[in-house]
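Late entry, magnesium ion complex.
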Amino acid sequence: MAASLFLGTLVAAAWVGAGCATRPGLSWQRYEFERPQMGLPFRIVLYATDGQVATNAAEAAWKRIAELNSILSDYEEQSELSRLSRTAGSGRSVAIGPDLWRVLIRSEEMARASGGAFDVTVGPLVQLWRRARRQRVLPEPDRITAARAAVGWRRVELRPRTRSVRLVAPGMRLDLGGIAKGYALDEAFAVLRHQGVARALVSGGGDMVVGEAPPGERGWKVAVAPLDAPGAPPARTVWLRWASLCTSGDLFQHVEIGGVRYSHIIDPRTGVGLTDHSLVTVIARRGITADALATAASVLGPVAGIRLVERTPRAEALVVRSVESAGKLQFEMAETRGFRGWELRR
Ligand code: AMP
Ligand code: MG
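Prediction complete; structure with ligand written out below:
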């Protein structure tokens, strides 16, 4: 069964390489590994001075990602997340492991910071819209109303003393598709570091976490793809070090019904898939933050989205949105004050 909980992210960013493989006088060697994980192509690029170190580190990182998928996936019936969702409305409080706990704590912080635009309790709505995508029929309004009754981040009770969770409303279903991949990338990078490899990049479906720059480089050169629409503003290039870059948008994952394109990202306030075409790129220190912020800013739109990222320490964002006006496509662009710093970084 496809364990692809992290369907969310589109391939909007591409690592475009940093020329040198080996530099004279230095024994750094570049190693590349690829593997499907979480239903998406994942990639590790690292520099090491020893092939065995490189292979062992990559293996350990793959293992960690697979482990996290088996905990955080809503596609896997037996994941810790799915088991937790099945206790919704029972009144029971369930003790959970450290990974799920960390992701739920960060999810709650993001829900609060974004005024509920980011909300991992959207599970029942995601289910409805996944079906709409398969059948190409819009969900009936009363089904959206019923699903919304089981959505609401304030109805997830997190109890730190016992590290346990109670899902208050019956039918609640958690979906970590907007945040868990970022966490998995952080953790995979942490494993590499633990194995002595810091000059590394881990990416999954276009989102990435990077550490120290490749030898002799100022960073990992990453092209931030433009919005896929004729006349969209061109790609930008950033140089990343010790950072994460995540994107969100409706490019690959959407359904078109009655001439309207609905995104896989849902506005929890309406229960409806987003209908504006946008591409949000967020750079933050950690993947868990960049991933969640990108999803949140997609829901909030350029103005409130950029405001949210400006309020988040050490995070920057670029939002491009296409708007149709008098039959013509126009583009709105917004970015945080520090985004350009990543383009110029030396
Ligand atoms: P991303 O590509 O990171 O923006 O994640 C999109 C995925 O997050 C979707 O496929 C859903 O699984 C989930 N999701 C959809 N809407 C929301 C939302 N408003 N808040 C949090 N997660 C969401
Ligand atoms: Mg996200």
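The two ends are 44 Å apart (CA to CA). Will revisit in the morning.
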